[in-house]
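Could you help me review a protein record that somebody else here produced? What it holds is a sequence and that sequence's fold in token form. I need someone to confirm that the token line plausibly describes how this chain folds. Take the sequence as given and treat only the tokens as open to question. This is what I was given:
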Amino acid sequence: MAESDKVFSGSIPKFYDTLMVPLIFEGYAADLAELVAAFSPASVLETAAGSGAVTRGLAPRLGAGKRYVVTDLNQSMLDYAATRQKPDSRIEWRQADALDLPFEDASFDVVCCQFGAMFFPNRVEGYAEARRVLKPGGHFVFNVWDRIEENAFADDVTNAVATVFPHDPPRFLARTPHGYHDIALIREELSRAGFADITIETREKVSRAPSARDVATAYCQGTPLRNEIEARDASLLQLATDRAAEAIASRHGGEGPVAGKIQAHVIVAAG
């Protein structure tokens, strides 16, 4: 993973939240919130919270007096997430590295993470940290994207942007968000971190947007793909976005609303 893959700053948080979240994250955030709430936890830690899609879905499901600590590596994303959440005395916002959590052992009933594990420099360490802060009988609930070929818009954008930089195509989407999809590897790394009870379910959904332009802007300007494009030639950001929009429109709906398949793995680990 390139260092720039972890940088969500500048205008990225706003584009990410207003475009990417409704495009691909909201449905899976609702799933994660439902799974976590079903354990009736008294204390929850969320890592890699991003712009707060899970936080907004889970907070209303937690009862009064519960403890909910929301963390992210990127302070700019955490700051934005806090602006999207109504004041809530149960929620503590804290910048934290999922691989080096600033919490005591056995502090939480549930640790949850929405599409963050792919960004961990060392996933076994990240999983071991989640297990360390879990109370006995606690659960680690998270999800990761399936391979890019199972996620239509991400695949289309990657291929379209490659035509702008044929000699050095940006590969952020394939490399990182969609680069950790091997179920056997996920099980193995969770086991190495000490988890014994692991369930993995693959869930397909449909991603929808008002236009192909919205999809292209979301991916090209609301994710670290933007960093890769601008590192090559910032003046070509708009051209890359245009190419992506054209590709999506031609495959998924012309000038009106567009829809495409998305797919992810949802994991619950304990023990």
Notes: The radius of gyration is 18 Å.
